[in-house]
Inverse folding.
């Protein structure tokens, strides 16, 4: 059953990216163009997502266990260190360059756009480089 | 600053759909959605691999179903500079793994559970994203 839920959650998430237009890099780039022609819409994507997910998260996490799994399994990492800041800054630079972050990039494969496929390919190479050099665990 | 193409209603609605996906995945499977983690782990970790792959397939199916049911075409505008796409993809891939999250993992799931770590990550990638667009557009 949890396999089906994974698929359904992905479909719903992908649909949200389309409805909110976050799947469109141009929309993302004009959200980041605060000092030029600014489109504040994507702030509302975040607000909409948080209004739904945050209160329900706090309700659900107090349950004994999830419906289709043995236990809740999410990051409780509280560490604020250089990796967090440097990694976020690198991500922000890539996000500002292309207007794509991981979710919309993967969803846009559906549109068979060669440019988003190139981006996703490079992104996966990035994932592998970090794993290869073990940067997630190094301090 | 000049506000353009502002679509708060569809942005909020799309955001709420994304929030719903987060809630469903958490309630049933006990995990919080972070696309960069799901994508990186789908290819390199045995743990939950099938769940992660199904979620990613769902992400791609979402836009296809949206087009089938609404008959609306999804238009995206994306850079066609090969060098820019590769640099952006590498930066997003490396940055999200080093910092442990992206727009969804830190920006929605992390902020939703009031994680200071994720709030700092989100502020960092937003600021760097804004600066990157500023530099790209005006210098």
């Amino acid at each position: 059953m949890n396999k089906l839920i994974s698929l359904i959650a992905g479909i719903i998430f992908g649909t949200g990216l389309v409805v909110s237009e976050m799947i469109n890099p141009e929309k993302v780039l004009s959200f980041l163009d605060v000092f030029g022609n600014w489109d504040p819409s994507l702030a509302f994507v975040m607000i909409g997502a948080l209004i739904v997910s945050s209160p329900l998260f706090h309700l659900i996490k107090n349950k004994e266990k999830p419906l289709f799994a043995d236990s809740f399994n999410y990051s409780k990492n509280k560490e604020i260190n250089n990796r967090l800041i440097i990694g976020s800054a690198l991500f922000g630079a890539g996000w500002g360059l292309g207007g794509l972050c991981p979710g919309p990039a993967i969803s846009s494969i559906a549109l068979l756009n060669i440019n988003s496929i190139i981006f996703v390919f490079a992104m996966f190479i990035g994932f592998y480089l970090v794993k290869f050099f073990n940067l997630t665990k190094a301090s | 600053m000049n506000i353009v193409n502002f679509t708060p209603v569809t942005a909020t609605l799309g955001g709420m759909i994304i929030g719903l996906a987060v809630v469903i995945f958490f309630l049933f499977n006990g995990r919080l959605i972070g696309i960069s983690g799901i994508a990186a782990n789908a290819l390199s970790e045995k743990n939950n691999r099938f769940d992660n792959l199904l979620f990613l397939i769902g992400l791609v199916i979402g836009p296809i179903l949206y087009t089938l049911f609404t008959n609306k075409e999804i238009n995206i505008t994306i850079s066609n500079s090969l060098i820019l796409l590769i640099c952006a993809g590498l930066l997003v891939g490396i940055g999200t793994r080093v910092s442990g999250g992206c727009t969804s993992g830190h920006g929605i799931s992390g902020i939703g559970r009031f994680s200071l770590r994720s709030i700092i990550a989100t502020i960092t990638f937003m600021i760097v994203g804004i600066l990157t667009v500023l530099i790209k557009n005006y210098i």
